[in-house]
Amino acid sequence: MAATGRKSVLFVCLGNICRSPIAEAVFQKLVVEQGLTDQWRIDSAATSTYEIGSPPDYRGDACMRRHDIIMNHIARQVTKEDFLSFDYMLCMDESNLRDLKRKSEKVQNCKSKIELLGSYDPQKCHIIEDPYYGKDEDFETVYQQCLRCCKSFLEKCH
Fold this sequence. Notes:
Blueprint: E1 7-13, H1 19-33, E2 40-46, H2 58-66, H3 80-85, E3 88-91, H4 94-104, E4 113-116, H5 136-157
């Protein structure tokens, strides 16, 4: 953890326009609701360069608005600094996990604990599937998974 006592988490998916910004916004809302804002640094990023500079997918944004959550994020790629500054990197699927672990091996003094966000799911649904090529309901599924996982992660870290 950082010297300030703040914890930090980076949510990661392939493009940083669907799953990881949803997880980031869900976790941010949970932290705010519990009055822990000053204790957490929260962000999200992509393993790829596909969507750098893009806002969240409009279907994910619509889903989040239905749950009274506003996403305010612009897609970016994971950087070397992220491996040095985030306590946790929580990713969405096995491909993200492999990419992050491979990248972390090239970073001296990597401090990030790299895990699947789904490893915190009380329903044991370890993979959060990419809804990009799916339907609106798939974004709701991602939201529900992220909500369960983020609640569990926050409980374990608090």
